[in-house]
Write a structure and sequence with these properties.
Length: 85
Amino acid sequence: MPGTTNNATITNGTGASVVISSAVSVASILCNKALTISSGSLTVTARASSLQGALTVASGATLSASGDDTTLSSRGTVIADGQSK
């Protein structure tokens, strides 16, 4: 599991999606698969991050980006608390 100073890159391997079910904090993330935050949280703290697949954030789960020069973009469909955004 990457930590707060790591850049997480999820671009290949088996499976069509990634599921987060605990508190995860990374410097940045690049993910081209569908990403679901089913519980817990995903926090990015530095640099540019990009989610290129569908993003689902379940009710009670959180997604946050903080810190100087930190950005988070999503190119796919975003569903938060059951609502498509």
